[in-house]
Amino acid sequence: MKVEEAKKLVKPHLTTARYEHTLRVAETAVQLAQRYAYEGSIEKVALAAIFHDYAKYRPLDEMKRWITESFLPKDLLDYHHELWHGPVGSILIDREYGINDPEIREAIYYHTTGRANMGKLEMIVFLADYIEPGRNFPGLDEVREMAQQDLVKACWMVSRNNIDYLMKQEATIYPDTFHAYNDLTRHNGGNTHDKK
Ligand SMILES: [Fe+2]
Ligand SMILES: [Fe+2]
To answer: How far is CA 170 from CA 2, 80, 157, 160, in A?
Structure first.
């Protein structure tokens, strides 16, 4: 599928703000792919980013049905519905558009939580979603800076910030979010707290 076609397909499913976010994620992801010499095609990077929030505005009962009736893990239903659109989106793009490239699927599936052993495209979309230029919240500059230097360390920061945020909200945290953090911490050489 061509990038321009993907944009046209995604647009009616998103709000204007979310669509613009999507375009910025795609641009950021392509930049990261070039910086970190992603081995796959740039088109693939753009497609994963363009479809990453595809299921964001599906009705909750539809997403629930996909989780219940597909191979998706049922424990998703025990967690906040914000976590559902990634996994459900990864199924929808296959069913609706025949996009079944495993790297694209996984980048979309895990873009909210991350997971252990993320591939390069997964990390790129995970990070691009967090740092795209429209985002603005405390701690972001540090991640943006690291994104210029070290993909794994920047993803580790995102993962750490996610857990920190969720704990401050006293929210439940999906296991993959912890698995991402633990795995990225190990890849950073162990107890890699920010040394300021
Ligand atoms: Fe998302
Ligand atoms: Fe997003």
So the answer is: 42, 12, 20, 15
Nearest to 125 by CA among 81, 97, 86: 86
Distance of CA 82 to the CA centre of its chain: 12
Q: What gap in Å lies between CA 44 and CA 101, rounded to an integer?
A: 9
Token duo for residue 170: 């006293």
Cβ–Cβ < 8 Å for 84, 176: no
Ligand nearest to the CA of 132: 2
123: CA distance to ligand 2 center in Å? 13
For domain 3-187, the CATH architecture is: Orthogonal Bundle (1.10)
Report the percent of the chain where pLDDT is more than 90: 93
86 Cα to the center of ligand 1, angstroms: 6
The structure tokens listed for 11 are 């647009």
pLDDT tens profile 125-158: 999 999 999 999 889 999 999 999 999 999 999 9
pLDDT digits (tens, 9 = 90+) for 104-124: 999 999 999 999 999 999 999
Q: Are 15 and 23 in contact (CB under 8 A)?
A: no
Q: How many CB atoms lie within 10 A of CB 98?
A: 8
Measured in Å, residue 173 CA sits from the centre of ligand 2 at 18
Please state the pTM of the whole predicted model.
0.94
CA 178–ligand 2 middle distance (angstroms): 20
